[in-house]
Amino acid sequence: MAPDAKAGLATRSIHYDSDLSGPEVAANISTTTTFRHPSPKQIASKPEGYYSDKWDASEPSRDIYSRYTQPTLTRVERVLSSIIGQPTVVYPSGISSAFAVLLLVRPDVIAITEGYHGCHASLEVYRRLRGEDQSVIKLDDEYPNGKKLLCWVETPLNPTGESRSIAAYAKRARAVGGTVGVDATFAPPPLQDPFKWGADVVMHSGTKYFAGHSDTLCGTVSVRNKEDWLKLWHDRTYTGSNIGSLDTWLLLRSLRTLSVRVNRQSATATALAQWLASLTRAESGSDLDGPGGVVEKVWHTSLQEDRAELLGEGKQMEKGPATFGMLLKKPEYATNLPHSLKFFVPATSLGGVESLIEQRSLSDPNADPRLIRLSIGLEDFEDLKRDLVQGFRNVIQVRLHAASASSARFLS
Description:
The chain has 412 residues and is α/β, with parallel strands linked by helices. Helices cover 36% and strands 13% of the residues. It has two domains: 9-32 and 70-255, Type I PLP-dependent aspartate aminotransferase-like (Major domain) (Aspartate Aminotransferase, domain 2, 3-Layer(aba) Sandwich); 258-411, Alpha-Beta Complex (Aspartate Aminotransferase, domain 1), CATH 3.90.1150.10.
């Protein structure tokens, strides 16, 4: 059955590679590294030749060596290109996909502010290779003319879940001939389409929502044309940045449920963010819909002052992100809360089916020690809310006991 480009996102996630399958219903794992050469007769029957420049790496007529192509990866990239809306290359991690963007664009100037600390570390590797002729500026600085600019917009922002206007930065970058790159990890389809708002290249740490089960490392880069796709494929092939066989298969398996997972996670996260924000207005010592005096601030696209411009049907963010941040009143609250919960797992990363919670300073030394990042999974809203309520009560009690013990030692 030929792919149906008019089908909905959820349908394409399941069926867009169906013409590449055999009689099996579930896709096979391709573990071979090398493939049999065709016979001279078979080669002669193919007008495009064997190693000719007409061989298409995106839809290979044959597989030669798995560093070039392999059947399961071809299926994954077919599905991803459809649901993202542009030609897509898959990488072994999110950070390798970020570096692939730098190799593709080769910017003289990078405009970037905040966001995932790993991308900043990867940028430093690129700068070391480039030498002194490469510079970094802030996103809101004036963009220079006459230099190759990469405007790097991470939206929604890690770790807070705040959204930035892609269109606003795209307009500024276009004025000086710059390239707009978007890290859209926090808002995969169906939440956001960065290309619709002016992005030239879009990356995802696919480990998060595309894979979605906390068991797969992968990354993606999507571009607007086949020429850039081939450049990405060439760079991946000859830098050896290839995803492994098992991860490729796990990613394809996970894409089948992307839409239902992300929509559910988004709805639950938005409801939790709204409820948590209400606790910031509760007085210390009160405990009506949860204890007051614990949560200082909550970040989420649905809570931004400019949310009317960014969030809603037909807007940049169709729905809110499923990962967001909250600032607690005291560092010890943030230290103890992740280990006071039943349904939230105290761990880094995000996007999995299980809810995760992290005191962000454990992974990012520059983060405020009061900052908590929440990645919402597929559990029921009321269970997660109840879990947080008892967790807040527990950290208050831990602090009161510590204060009481300290006072007793002082009096003795």
